[in-house]
Specification:
The protein has helices spanning 20-28, 56-61, 78-94, 106-114, 124-137, 139-149, 151-155, 162-175, 179-183, 205-222, 224-234, 249-256, 262-286, 300-312; strands at residues 7-13, 33-38, 64-65, 98-103, 193-200, 291-293. With 313 residues, it is α/β, with parallel strands linked by helices. The chain has two domains: 3-116 and 187-312, Rossmann fold (3-Layer(aba) Sandwich); 124-183, Histone, subunit A. A six-stranded parallel beta sheet has the order 3-2-4-1-5-6, sandwiched between helices. Strand 2, helix 2 and strand 3 (64-65) form a beta-alpha-beta unit. The model has no long low-confidence stretch (mean pLDDT 93).
Length: 313
Amino acid sequence: MNEESLTHAIFLLGPTATGKTDICLELAQHLPIEVISVDSALVYRHMNIGTAKPEMDALSQCPHHLINIIDPNEYYSVAQFKADAENLAKEIKSRGAIPVFAGGTMMYYKALKDGLNQLPVRDANIRKEIDLEAKQYGWPHIHEKLRKIDPETAKRLNPNDSQRIQRAMEVFNITGEPMSKLLDATILNQTNIKTIDIALVPESRSKLHEHIGLRFKKMIAMGFIEEVVQLKKTWDLSLEMPSMRCVGYRQVWEFLEGKYDEQTLIDKGSAATRQLAKRQLTWLRSFSIKHVLDPYSQNTRPQIQRLVETLAS
């Protein structure tokens, strides 16, 4: 693939609560950028508060893509993201603007950078059978079954990680092969995007945790609980759906079921968000990213602007 055929873009990766949206809005004041969301929670319509979705006035200041594209009872795969993102980047470039990928869903980043393995598409009937068995015997039981057929995958999964256990069992039921074996297969789908990658990694973990705690409290004050009440009324949802696995939503759901009081909800929601941030940082450290910046440093935003300007010149 020659250099002229590539689409050049910025990739701004970071854990939750590191100010990625604010950075993009500031960039848009100086440079012709359009943002492609790299966030698996922002794809859902009607899930605004709990996902920290940019508000309408912010979206009007700078075009954002891959936000509000599916309903909470629908699915959006990594493969769909890769195809949509590559098409959008090309369209943005054709308008004379700079594509800026921004978010914290690390599987999306990996898919664009490294390509996708040839895993089978989801099968609703097989998933239903797995879910019924899990409902009867529990996810640790399914995890034990997975351990016997795919010990490598089972080893890296928590026995209650329903989403990933279900996918691994589904893949085996469709193909007859362990998912770990298929993931080791050669990846052929090379991307046509060349990116300048920036990782936001806080030097102070306590500062990140402080931001997370304050933001979750703000979400509750803004009406996060009422948002989930409305979602449950409007859509036929369950805690097993990807939308309700978004951090914070399970905790509010359980609060509405009377499992704990509001302060416990805040504590549990903040703890779940900290765990998400920890996983995101682990992913970030596994990538070879040249530009690693502290999101809370005063020097970071000018540095990012200079990097983006290299694509505008």
